[in-house]
Structure formats: structure tokens, C-alpha cells
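Hello again, I could really use a second opinion on something today. For a while now I've been wondering how a particular protein folds. Please have a think about how the structure follows from the sequence. Here's the protein in full, and shout if anything looks odd to you:

***
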Amino acid sequence: MQHILSHLWHFLNWKALVEIIILWAVIYRIFLFLKGTKAIYLLRGIIFLVMALWVFQTLGLPVLTKLLTYFFAFFLVLIVIIFQPELREGLIRIGRRHIFYIEPKREDMERALREIVSAVGTFSRKKRGALIAIRREIGMQSVIESGVRLDARLSSELLQNIFYPSAPLHDGGVIVEGTNILSAACLFPLSENTGLEKTLGMRHRAGIGLSEHSDAVVIIVSEENGVVSLAINGQLSRDLSANDLFTILKGQLTS
């Protein structure tokens, strides 16, 4: 009997360990999905409400517990309504991505970055405007769907064809994920930052705007002077050389 109980105890411990691992994996993916967005503050608010509810229940405060329970239920419904686009995209990403999805290898990612830097160098020399966003964790399905879906392997030649002045897809931006071009001719949201320089054109404001709404790294090439800029988290770095651009991209995307 003792032997059977011992085996049962080990089995239950094993199940508990699996549950803990799955729970932490889910929480980690939620934080990655919300990282860099305003929704992360909402998540903190939910955590605070849950902790307050636990404290009220522990202290035996029925009135406050009941009021907070009602408010919490209403709050969750409100979240579903307000964040419907983000929830929809999250489900789409889960459905599209294989359960055992493997991120691109470091060497493949570096090759893709060199292809981008090569194309950007050509755009800069020829003063050809370009807008390239490299997607990371935070989704932007609405932006991707605003353009023409490509799902093509990334190459310098393909980027140069897309941003050729008379090409049908040269207007708008390109979305890159890993080693693939997801979509072209996409509409990026314009930045609402009133502190931006008045000399910045629509292309720069669109690049900054997307970096404000997501954790994407956005490369902007000026059509007027060929200057290369990089927008990350709403901050714009300007007049970058090819080496500077590659170094920053490598640090942001392969570390």
C-alpha cells in the first residue's frame, strides 16, 4: 500500500510540474504579446484588481468583495470590446503559426539583415524613398492586411523591385518577419507626437508611428536626400551609415 501511495504521489508531482510549466509559458507569451503597448498597463491594472480581491476575501470584507467582483466582471467585458482587434490578431497568429514554430537561425537572420542593408544602401545612393518595418513580437495584422500579401523570401533584389519608382507596390511600407517579406504597399499609422521636427515628411512620421504602436524596427530612407533613419519605440535615429544600420539591427533582432 505504501508503495502504491508513493507512486501516486510522484505522479501527482509530475502533473503539477507540467501544469506550472504550461502556466508560466502562457503568461510569458502574453507578456511578450503586450510588451511595448499600452495594453501592458491594462494588464498591470488587472493584476492589481485580482490582488485587491484576494485581500478583501482574506480579510473577510463581504461588501467590498462583492462590489469588486461585479466591477471586475464588467471590466473584463469592457476589455474584450476595446481590445477586440488585438485579441482577434492573437488568435490569428496562434492559428497560423505551427505549434512547434522555430525562430530563424541566427546566421539566417543575419543574412536577411545584410540583404536589407544592401537594398537600403542602394536606395540611399539613388535617393529612392523606402519604408521597411521588421516585425518582432507585437502583432500588427491590420497593417499587414492594408497592403498586398506576398509571403516571399527576403532578398535585396526583391526589395529594390518593390521600391522602384514606377513599380505598383512602391507606395507605402514593407513588412518583414524573420527571413520573409510578409506584405508590401502597407499603410502605416502616422505618429501623433506633436514634438517631432516640422521638417519630417509623411514617410518618417509613418515609420515613427508604427514604432509607437508596436515593437517593430522601422527603416526609413528619405527620397529628398537619401538619408537613412531608424525608428524604434517612437525614437528616430538619423543619418545612419550601412555599418551603423547593420550593427543596430543585429543588436535589436539577433540578441
